[in-house]
Amino acid sequence: MAWLGNLGTADKSTSVLESIFTNVTDAILIIDEQGFVAGANPAAERMTGWSAEELIGKIHFCDICRGMANCVEEASCVDCFAKRLSMPSFEMKLKTKDGNEYAVAASSTRLIDQDVKYLVVILRDMSEQHRMERERIQRMMTNYVIQAQEEERKRVSRDLHDGVGQALYSILVGLKVVNQLQLDDNIRNHLEDVQQMTTRALEEVKSLAVELRPSALDDLGLVPAIRSYNKRYEQTFGIETELEIVGNKRRYAPVVETALYRICQEAMTNSAKYADCDKIMVRLVDSGDMVELYVEDDGRGFDTDQIRIQGTGLGLYGMKERANLLGGTVEIKSAPGEGTVVHVMIPLTDRGEPLHVDPGTYSR
Questions:
Q1: Which of 125, 146, 178 is the last residue of a domain?
Q2: d(Cα 358, Cα 364) in Å, to the nearest integer?
Q3: CA atoms within 13 A of residue 169's CA, in its CB half-sphere
Q4: Where is the Histidine kinase domain (predicted)?
Q5: Cα–Cα distance list, 13 to 43, 106, 107, 216 (Å)
């Protein structure tokens, strides 16, 4: 605090300045005319890693500052801010005692006291803001990928149904017409075989179209889509399913319905692959300001911690990512021999849209 005393201010004013200097969370560095540190507050000690004793009179500011950051270069000393009377806001690279470098927000001003010029530099750690910004951009990119994937699924599903499906159906009708003509038995048998193959191909195309994007999800909503999926699930895997609806029955924003449907689909598929279960209960609970989805099986269960250690939970990661994008959560409850419960919670507005998310970050 000796530097403050040199200003020759009254004792009371000096006391206030010393309190501010000591307690502000931004780092403050006082630089003399030779460029050496003449003063440093506790925040500057924490930010740089050097103590005040190590800094004052011993560390040149250029050993701390690695240049102003700009859009052209990572960091540059061209047109150094130290040459100016003041710069209200800029970004610079800070080098710490342990050799690390990171960007900080800075401002500077030059003071003149008794013909001695001091440069006051105030630094603010932006690493947390940068981290949050990176996470925000990552969420946006993930959301765009998911939305693009869903749009592509929808397009391919429609093309399969309206294009390939209709073409196969026309072929099937033509085969039936030809089969009604007076034909040799061998030819008739061959036509029947072709007709059966065409029928199977048509069913497979319809199944693929529904798996990619069920029309019921867009036309009728989440509950009819899950109910339809459960029927196909029982036919495919031979596992009994039960659907229970609790609370309000309404449509949600398309992004919410898609996320819940895909999470339900992924959870049930995982149960069929790994759980060795006989029954799955799907429960949808709408309490007005929250929609909850439970997918519970009576299978073998697993150790959730071990799954995370092994890094094999890609399906689990996808479910959590979809929910997180909407401000929701996914909780997995399981233990060996006790089955598995996937619990999804998404806060909603009264219009059925996700509550804790910027509407501009998702497609409707």
A1: 125
A2: 12
A3: 10
A4: 260-350
A5: 21, 25, 23, 73
62 assigned ligand-binding residue: yes
pLDDT digits (tens, 9 = 90+) for 50-99: 998 999 999 988 888 887 765 444 445 555 766 677 777 788 888 889 88
Q: Which CATH number fits the domain that encloses residue 236? A: 3.30.565.10
Report whether 65 belongs to an annotated binding site: yes
pTM here? 0.65
Contact status, residue 32 vs residue 118, Cβ threshold 8 Å: yes
Residues 170 and 236 in one domain: no
Same domain, 273 and 355: yes
Residue 77 marked as a ligand binder:
yes
Give 271's DSSP letter. I
- Other beta carbons less than 10 A from residue 3's beta carbon: 15
Is 36 in the same domain as 65?
yes
Q: Among 34, 27, 24, 93, which residue's Cα sits nearest to residue 59?
A: 34
The residue out of 109, 125, 141 marking a domain boundary is 125
pLDDT at 295 over 90: yes
* Residue 258 shares a structural domain with residue 333: yes
Say what the pLDDT of residue 81 is.
66
Domain count of the fold of the chain:
3
Q: Which residue in 64, 36, 31 sits closest to 50, CA to CA?
A: 64
What would the pLDDT profile of 98-128 be if each residue is shown by its tens digit? 888 888 888 888 887 666 788 889 998 877 7
Domain containing residue 183: 128-213
Q: Of the candidates 295, 231, 227, which has an alpha carbon nearest to the alpha carbon of residue 263? A: 295
C-alpha distance across the termini of the chain, in Å: 58
Within 13 A of 24's CA, how many CA atoms are on the CB side? 16
Tell me: do 280 and 344 sit in the same domain. yes
Q: Where are the alpha helices (DSSP H) in 213-345?
A: 215-219, 222-237, 254-270, 304-310, 314-324
- Does the pLDDT at position 187 exceed 90? no
Flag whether 264 is marked binding.
Answer: no
Specify whether 223 is located in the same domain as 161: no
Q: CA-CA distances (angstroms) from residue 313 to 26, 142, 146, 223?
A: 42, 18, 18, 27
